[in-house]
Every structure is written in C-alpha cells, then in structure tokens.
Amino acid sequence: MDQKPQPPSHGLAACPNPECAEPVDPRDRYCGACGYDLSATVEPPGGQDRPTMPIAAPVWPEAPPRDPGSLSTLTQHPGELPGTDSGGRDLPTVPVRTDGPVAAPEPSAASAPSAPPTPAPTPEAGPEPVPPSGETVRGGGDFELAAPDPRAAVRVDPATAAPAAAPGADPGEPAEGTCVACRAGRVDGDGYCENCGHAQPRERDHMERALGTVAAVSDRGLRHHRNEDSFALTETSLPDGRPATVAIVCDGVSSAHRPDEASAAAARAAGAVIGEALPRGTHPQQAMHEAIVAAAEAVTALARTGGDGADAPPGGNSPACTIVGSVVTDGLLVVGWVGDSRAYWVPDDRTAPAARLTEDDSWAAQMVKAGLMNEAQAYADERAHAITGWLGADAYELEPHTAAFKPDRPGVVVVCTDGLWNYAEAAEAMAGALPADAALRPLHAARVLVGHALDGGGHDNITVALTPFTPPPAGAGSS
User: Fold this and answer.
1) Within 10 A of 40 (CB to CB), how many other CB atoms are there?
2) Which element (helix H / strand E) includes 270?
3) What is the Cα–Cα distance from 460 to 252, expressed in whole angstroms?
4) Rounded distance, CA 420 to CA 219, Å?
5) Which of 11, 318, 322, 383 could be joined to 303 by an S-S link, Cβ 3.0–4.6 Å?
6) What is the β-pairing status of strands 320-329 and 243-252?
C-alpha cells in the first residue's frame, strides 16, 4: 500500500534552476549551490505529461452561487466532464459533441495523452442503450442536458432477478451461506465449502454491499495478511426529496500504526457526516469537504488511544489512511479526495471517452507536475506510491480536494483504491475492465473489477465502489 515519505520531501532530485542543476537532498529547502528556492512551483516544459486535472489552492471558498432550490455550481464543460476544482475555479473547456461517437480530447496542459478507449463487450442481456442526441448548449455556467433513453435508467435485470431477492440486491447475488469461490457449494460450520473445499474469508477479508443505486466490494488481495481498506455507502435525499447516493472508499497506510482501524474510522465518519449534511440542504461539494475534515479528525483521534482503548504510547507512527468519495444527485456528480485513491468516470456509451477525475497526492504526481518525469517514468520509480497527502495526526497539512461535474450522458462513477487502479491506471484501461452492463448490475461489475486486480497479481488490498449516473431529461432543469 501507500507509504508515508520520511522525512517530508520536496521531491526534487536536482536543482530546477536551469543554470545550476546540482543534485539536492530531498530535505533541503534551498539549493546549496545557487540558493534556489526548492519549494517554488516549477512550470513543466511544453509537451510533458501532467496529471489528469489541475488542482487549485485547496482553501474552501464560499458556497458556489446558485438559484434558490437549485444545486447549480455554475460549472463549465472541460475536456472530459463539466466541473469546478476545489478552489472554485472553472476547469478548462473544449467542444464536446453528443450526437454521435465522441473522439478523445486532444492532449492539453491539464490532460495527459492517452490511447483510444477500448470498446467493451456487448451485454449478454438487457436493453440496448440508445445514445443521447442534441448539441450541448453552453453559456452562463449551465447547459442543456440531453434526455437519456428511459430503458437505460432501469437498474434491475428482470431476466436474471431472483423472485425472493431483497430490494436493491444484485441479480447475481448468491444466497447467504454460499461459497464465495465457487458460488455454488454450502459453507460448513468450520468455514469450508462442501463443494470445492475453499476456506471462506474472514469478515473483513472480503466485504460486499449493495444498495439500490450503489455497490462496493473490498478484498484482502493475494499478498497481504489483512484487509486495510474500508468503505461506506449511503442513500439519502435532499430537502426537496430528490435522492442522493454517497460512496466513500478509504485505504489504510500500511507503514503507519493500525491502518485497518484508520480506514474504518475515516469511512464511518465521512459517510455519517455527508449523510446528515445533504438532507439539511448543504451543497454536495461543501458536504464532501466537511466529510473529509470529519474523517481526518476521526483518524487523528486514534493517535490518542491504543488499539485496546488505553492511551497510546509515546512515539510510533500515527494511524493514517487515504480517502476518496463521490456524491451523485439530480444530474450532479461531486468527488472529493486526499491521497492517491481515485475516482473515474466511465460513460455507458463506450465510444465516448472515459475520464480520471482525481489527481494523486503522491511522489509520482509531484514529479510529473514539476516536469521532471512523464507519467510512465514517474510510476515506474520505486518511490512512485509515496504519498504526500493523507488523513492522520502526522499529516503535513489537511488539503481536501473536491470537484463538481455535470455529465451529459449516462455512465458509472468508479471510486477505488490503488489496489485496483494499479492494474487499470488509465481511464481507458478502467473502462475496458468495467463490464458494459455495469449500470444495470453494479455489484456484479464491482466483483469483476476486483477479479481483474486479483488476476493481475493482487499485490494490494482492493476496494471499489460503483454508482450509476443518469442525467436529468432535457428541459427538466439542471442541478
């Protein structure tokens, strides 16, 4: 999993002054040869890769302006999705068509080059999706949203749904007490399958949960002795009754003390806070910010007590974790994060480009942002996953990132830990691994993604949550 850098480092291997370029120690603040300020921002050379999305100063601004009764964040349409960053600034814009196949946007200073998206296989069952039509209308910060095909909004596959299935359960959900390996045999009282003999996982080794509009799966993986990830799912509503779906995913920092407790505490706190804030009328982007702050406080509180509830001994490495979350409500998609857990957007129409919605707080991302390496070089380095932002008592400074988007077509929001995205890093790779019917069967799709990571080696804990997204019909107003 992630490692906290010890000690704090500016991430530079050499002085960025073009007239100097002397090797520097990662703990130095100034270059010993020329006195250059090593903490100063370095603009990357033209053509260099950069993380997916620019992040402005993470100081939370006033609530975004909006009309009474509206959730409008006055977002604009960027290269991939309409959005604002955590500083409240509009993200870059490029023309986007919705009347046919959509080509991937040209590389820009805020978007790394990527290969064409890989078409996903056609679903075996279920309605054929009808691509939305009409041109996106821009101006004034809002735009007209194309109406989705009503059949694509159905979230249950009647052909495979079990008659006695619980509300919100996935059609392929096995009965309680069924083996998680063969999904056919009955589990004995000693924890082994009568059919295949597979030992069943401990409760936290493999966790699954499905609500009506969101599903998540977490697995220990193949190399770790315990699962240090955690998640929280919530279905709530806005004050006027419109539904809202929340997914929170946390990844414990394995180099810290009690990482499993840290991720669990953060997920619980964030899910509870955002679940209470939205019904009160708090803007979803502000609610996400407050949830991350609450999660950080919950993890910090662990540093004051030991695992048995007694006072924590002096010294040691404080509990820590990363966090990523999403809120989907009434045509609005909000994401928030600290660390290197990620959120992706995958449209149902796989001819349209997928998008990565978050920028890692990591050594690799710093190298790319400074123009010292491209993404391939940075992530090939052994220091790539050293994180520069996390939740915990010894975090340098809490800097919650949030962004709001208004997708103009149906799709699926993927929030996950690096145990998954290590095996599907690019947005196109994530779209290729995600089943084409993910919006109809989110729990099944989450299992498939976990299986993709396990097939790739399962070197880390794996957690993913999927939330289907359907834009409001044209003329119905926007959030």
Assistant:
1) 9
2) helix 259-277
3) 11
4) 10
5) 318
6) antiparallel
